[in-house]
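Re-running D-2-hydroxyglutarate dehydrogenase to confirm reproducibility after the cluster update. Everything else is unchanged from the original entry.
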Amino acid sequence: MTDTAVLAELMTLVAPAKVLTDPASLQAYGTDWTRHYPPAPSAVVLPRTLEQVQAIVRWANRHQVALVPSGGRTGLSGAAVAAHGEVVVAFDLMNQIIGFDAVDRSVVCQPGVITRQLQAFAEENGLYYPVDFASSGSSQVGGNIGTNAGGIKVIRYGMTRNWVAGLKVVTGTGELLELNKGLVKNATGYDLRQLFIGAEGTLGFVVEATLRLERAPRNLTAMVLGTPDFDSIMPVLHAFQGQLDLTAFEFFSDKGLAHILARGDVPAPFETPCPFYALLEFEALNDEVAEQALATFERCVEQGWVLDGVMSQSETQLRNLWKLREYLSETISHFTPYKNDISVTVAKVPAFLREIDAVVSQHYPDFEVVWYGHIGDGNLHLNILKPAHLDKAAFFARCATVNQWVFEIVERYQGSISAEHGVGMIKRDYLHYSRSPAEIACMKAIKAVFDPNGILNPGKIFAPDHQ
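Result of re-run:
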């Protein structure tokens, strides 16, 4: 814990009112969406400037105080959890868009800018920020960069790292680094910018980001297709990719749809019950594209890959179809799900899911399992829902016992134990299933260069005794 005199010194670095120690603030800022670890920070500090962030990091080095960065706290790996008396550095007040270049189609943001705020700014300027996900209304740019956020448009636009043109970061020694400076082409050695993207705040804190924007998509159109089994989804993906430039290709199971429909605010896409559903999106730039989509749908029906389907005819219908997928995470969160976020190359997905599903069904016969994910880029979300009668700790303990078998399958398929949610505390003990000993050794060595005293987000990615 941080003593009173040390906290008093911290208050001299920012306004005293921006150092919070009341129980409500500690609870709110000390956790994320995982619910696995009870929050226990000693304080929360809210800097307004990058100079204040530097001062906070130097203060932490002097007193050997651990710091945990906090954005929108929508993470699902425990990377933003302060469970051991750390000081939380929350970027809520560094929330301004401070630059825009229409020629370069780039925008300069502070880390606390909300994702949807950035998307709205891009739209106001006739452009588009394509990194999108269900938590865009509360997630922050700094957190997105720290976790290399993906989401629903990866098949077309890639991950967050594809859109980061430059960064300013404060390292674990308090040094300010300005990386890449917004350049498109820069062949001057190591691209340190990429090291900080996805590093979960373990190497440095993002204090400014230059992000690229894109042409706004036109006449986005969605189709929801019901399939008789999961194996049919991949031929459907292949068929549509052969004819259209897809902006998204998602899937969800009938159990997931049942929870969405139970909300009462989203209509069913069609009457035919199906075990699995695919949601695809494309730009219908002209009638020919729409006709090609319908012709591909009819071919999929003839092949037996699709049982029924619907195509949006308006923006309202487009939004309603997307709700079937985007509302899933929030809807099942009320059941305290145990989540796994795993990936393989797209071609391996059907066999991979079959093996995982068999293991889960064998070991969790009394639990409800909900599958959904970004199938177009090989990312599957496995969600096991907690029965109402079962204690949370007992439920998580039962789920954790099967992780070994699940991750052994991931390793055998040369996949990732965390496709887009990061490692944090929840996945750190399983890192070796996706990373070799040599890779982990290199990662630890890089951590030591940028954070020699180990004050930045300790216990994340690697266990504390390995830092």
